[in-house]
Amino acid sequence: MGMTLAEKLIARHAGRDAVRPGDYVTAKVDIVMANDITAPQAIRVFRNLGAKDVYDKERVVFCSSHFTPNKDIASAEQAKVMREFAREYALKWYFEVGRGGVEHAVLPEKGISLPGDLIVGGDSHTCTYGALGAFASGFGSTDVGCSMATGDVWLRVPETLRVIVNGTLSPFVFSKDVVLNFIGRIGDDGALYRAIQWEGEVIDHLTIEGRLTISNMAIEAGGKAGLMIPDKKTLEFCEARKSRPFEPVYPDANAVYGETIEFDVTGMEPQIACPMLPSNVNPISKVAGQEIDQVYIGSCTNGRYEDLAIAAPFFKGREAKVRTIVVPASQEAWMRANKEGLLQIFAEAGCVVSTPGCGACLGGYMGVLAKGERCLSTTNRNYVGRMGHPEALVWLANPAVAAATAITGKITHPEEVAPADLSEVAS
């Protein structure tokens, strides 16, 4: 009996010919990643184990992302623990502020997460790397600390949910809309502990950045991982950046899937996740006109260069009507957006342009909401209290909707305020 992509990746790392859903295995890991929130706890576990060294200095990755540059003493202490550990053990991949950004943007850019990998991450959106054909999942700091010491992780093999997306995306409809529509169909727990394997002509036509957006939100449906089969586009992207050799893995033709969902996105409108769940999804025509206090463009979901390039043309020669915060996901995205003039466009429109980081996405800083405030955001979660006060409201949308909403001050279909030259809006 054939195996799915997730099963083949796990089997290879577990040193087994085959695995089946429900099996418990111990697997070798290619990368262990943590950030300034999760690394200090993982380091505590590592030290309590009595470990003398990390299992591989080139495969333990730390990113300063969530509360850096540090906003207060507590966050400074957290970052200090991580920084000093990275120095003590001479880690190759420690990303200080000004060098990295949000880990889920940085690792693909630097060629650290690669096809065929098994990646353990101290962050729930580690599933992002699945877009490159890796089995990548978020783990607790105890697991992360143990993996740092041993290079192993235990896990239960998940059942695979195969998702096939057909059709053609309309103007101003992007990968964010595809994944929001999917989550709206199956609910927040519709893929609970399942590996989601994305396929179909829509996925094939997406850029790598667009694919990363979809895999990023697998966890919002409860998924253990969100994977895509490596294709020519994937291999070219990774070959140009790889930090080490890699060997892609492909599912068997006779693989057995727990469930297959197939849907067509032709004619689909931009999708909006309304307060206060990512699964509370509606087409924009049902929610347009809602007054907004703040627009946030950033995060590991939609803070990459491509997302900034989608949003910027809407601001050209205009002023944002509501406060608008733009947070590039990585230093690389920030520098390219600066070189291409996008940051200047945002600034001239009255937007705040921040250093890379997670910012207000998790209620950290640089855009936290007050009681009763309403925000439209390109991030991935809109739970109660996620972005600030528990009585604030957050809508999730794609970068074009965010830009259009910033211009009008209310949730707006991008076609209503589209630039005269639509070719300026990245597709």
Structure description:
The protein has about 425 residues and is an alpha/beta fold. About 30% of the residues lie in helices and about 20% in strands. It has 15 helices and 18 strands. The strands form five sheets. Strands 4-3-2-5-6 form a five-stranded parallel β-sheet. A five-stranded parallel β-sheet has the order 16-15-14-17-18. A four-stranded parallel β-sheet has the order 10-9-8-11. The mean pLDDT is about 95.
Describe how the helices and strands are arranged:
Blueprint lengths: L4 H10 L9 E5 L2 E5 L3 H10 L11 E4 L9 H16 L4 E3 L7 H7 L8 E4 L13 E4 L2 H10 L1 E5 L3 E7 L8 H12 L8 E5 L1 H5 L2 H9 L8 E4 L3 H8 L19 E6 L6 E3 L7 E3 H4 L6 E5 H4 L2 H11 L7 E5 L3 H9 L2 H7 L3 E2 L20 E4 L15 E4 L2 H10 L19
Parallel strand pairs: 2-3, 2-5, 3-4, 5-6, 8-9, 8-11, 9-10, 14-15, 14-17, 15-16, 17-18
Antiparallel strand pairs: 1-7, 12-13
Supply database-style keywords:
427 residues; alpha/beta; 5-stranded parallel sheet; 15 helices; 18 strands; 18% strand
Give a short overview.
The chain is an alpha/beta fold and 427 residues long.
**Binned strand content:** 15-25%
- pLDDT averaged over residues: 97
Q: Quote the distance from N terminus to C terminus.
A: 39 Å
Which of globular, elongated, flat, extended, rod-shaped describes the shape?
globular
Structural class: alpha/beta
The major beta sheet can be summarized as: 5 strands, parallel
**Reading side by side through the largest sheet, how are the strands ordered?**
4-3-2-5-6
Give the fraction of residues assigned to helices.
25-40%
Extract low-pLDDT stretches.
none
CA-based gyration radius: 20 Å
User: What's the β-strand tally?
Assistant: 18
Number of helical segments?
15
